[in-house]
Every structure is written in structure tokens, then in C-alpha cells.
Amino acid sequence: MRCDVNLSLRPHGTEKFGTRSETKNVNSLRSVERAARFEVQRHAAVLSGGGTIVQETRHFHEEDGSTTSGRVKEEAEDYRYFPEPDLVPVAPARDWVEELRGRLPELPRVRRNRLREEWGISEHEMQSVLNAGAVDAIVATIDAGATQAAARKWWMGELARRANEQGVDLVTLPITPVQVARVAELVADGSLNDKLARQAIEGVLAGEGEPDAVVESRGLKIVSDDGALGKAVDDAIADNPGVADKIRGGKVAAAGALVGAVMKATRGQADAGRARELILERLAPAE
Q: Do 71 and 14 fall into the same domain?
């Protein structure tokens, strides 16, 4: 650190600044404090005694915290403030200035604050997005059709995890915002659940093609038709008679165990909501 301590005193209630001194080349925050304290006391003593402060540069002494006179500076020219003859005054037209202002991009801080408000997230959450370098990727994913919540979820969740595991920057992963938006869309329309969506992302990152192609080749789509799903439900009921009896007896919460069995049998591809409906339909108490 290297700085100058410029200081002046004036009587309380007056508007005009007093004559300043400039203590040169102070090299730490502690020394700044010591130099300022010494100069305050020196100025006060001179002024209280009826003396006059001389405009000058002063040297600071680390050993005792004092300052001594260096060079007197009486005029502005002593600071080398004088017109440069080769630099003429420039007065651009106001309409041109405003035209240029209108071409400027949104300032980073303004953009961050706008996005944070639009996304409805906290300062801490926004800082996490910034630290991950994910702002532009999330914005592009939203522009591609994803909700802001879904875009943040996949970039800051699954994709951030994979980037961290590989020790690479998030945005260098071989997946585009358009592809992430498509995965989010497949989840939103019920074609995939989160577990299957993570497998779809895995396939895209592995170079297996677009999300739809990965879903097709890996057979990832959720099983929701009553034919295939009904068989899985029937098998789960047959394999868990005790649980089935509880449900017949009115303990509907026990249906979760059968839903879990259906999910396991279908490798997580069953529509859990529809599976539960079918279970309750089959095990409804007889009237």
C-alpha cells in the first residue's frame, strides 16, 4: 500500500476549508491513522497559537509516528495542474451523448439486480448463481422456454454437481441451454420425472444426441398407460398381501409402500401418481 494523507482543519461552523498538508507515501492503514492523528494535533496547535498552516508536503516517520516538512506548495502549479496546449476543450452535443448512452449495454450490477427481482430469489441465491458462472446459461435456458425455477434448478443442481465432479467450469459442459430447456419441458409435461431427467442429461453429456433421442434410445419415458402400469400394480399387490390388507382396512397411507414397489419394478419409470390411483381403485373397501 502506498498513499498520501491530505488533511486540513477549520473552525467549527465555517464552510471554507483550511490550508492542507500532504503527508506523502504512507504505507499501511495503521500508519495512515498515526499520520492523520499527528497532523490533526499539529494543525490544532499551530492554529490555536495564532499561527498559519503552510501548504506543503510532509514526510512520515514510522519510528515515532511524526511528520516533518518536505516541500512547500504554494500554488496550483506546484502540483503541476496546468492546461495542456495540445488538448483542446471538447463539448459534445447533448443529443449525441444521449444517443451513445442509449447504445450502452445494461450495466452488470443493474442486470444482476433486475434478474434477482424477476426470479424472486435472495441476494445469497443470486450470489451462488454468480459464483457458479451460470447467469448467462440460465437466462438462455429461460429464453428457450424453460421457467426460471426449472432453469436454475438444472443448472445449479445436476449440472453444477457434474461440473464439480469433473473439475470444469459449468458452462463448458457439452450441453446447451436449448437442450436443458427441452429436458425441463419433458419433466413439465410428465414424460420424465427428475430421476429419468438426470439420466437424459447424462446421455446428452455423453454425446448420445438430443434429449428426445436419449429418452428414446434409453427407454426413459414414464410408464403411464393403464395397461403396463396396471400389471405392475397387480404384481405389487400380489407380492405384498399384508400391505394390501391394510389399505383395504382403510389405512390409505400404506399405499406408499406399494407405489415404491411399482417404481422399483419399472426402474423408476412409473407415473407414481397414476400408480397410487390404480392401487386405491383396486383395494377400495367393498361397500
A: yes
- Look up the CATH number of the domain holding residue 268: 1.10.10
pLDDT over threshold 90, residue 239? no
Do residues 220 and 196 touch, judged by C-beta distance below 8 A? Answer: yes
What's the pLDDT tens digit per position in 191-216? Answer: 888 888 999 999 999 999 999 999 88
Q: Which domain holds residue 64?
A: 3-79
User: Which single residue is written with the C-alpha cell 401418481?
Assistant: 273
Q: Is residue 70 part of a domain?
A: yes
Distance CA 62, CA 23 (A): 12
Backbone angles phi, psi at 185, to 5 degrees: -65, -40
Tell me how far apart the alpha carbons of residues 216 and 207 are, in angstroms, rounded to a whole number: 14
Domain count of the chain? 3
Contact 233, 246 (CB under 8 A): no
